Fold:
Amino acid sequence: MRRRVILDGFPRTLGQAESLKQLLESERLALTAVVNYELPASEIVARLGGRRTCEQCKAVFNVTERPPKVEGRCDHCEGKLFQREDDRPESIKVRLEAYDRSTAPLIEFYRKAGLLVRVAADGSPDEIFAITLTDLKSRRALQLAS
Ligand SMILES: [Zn+2]
Structure:
């Protein structure tokens, strides 16, 4: 059986993508697909803006999607939940702008290479996982057919 790996969140920059390409070529390994999860900025702000972190054990909750049993308190250790500076809407906007600046060239790089698979990330984790599998399988079927 051929072994396969998934790189999660890597590469993040064009420079890293070029280094990865050289490494894979020297090892005679092929990159089969690059999945980019896409979500409107307003949705990202809403999701990240709902995050709350436990002061003590650092567990992460979300006020809308994964609320703690008792408001403002950690389910695991009853520690106080707070909003990280990074998760405030104005910080999220800055983070998104930086992310777009560094990933836009990366997306173009993989689009030109014919490896980019775009997945709309609006749904539950299970739904998004199912869509990802379907997209990758249909892509693989196309590759085998050609
Ligand atoms: Zn806790």
The longest strand covers residues 34-38. The chain has a mean pLDDT of 91.
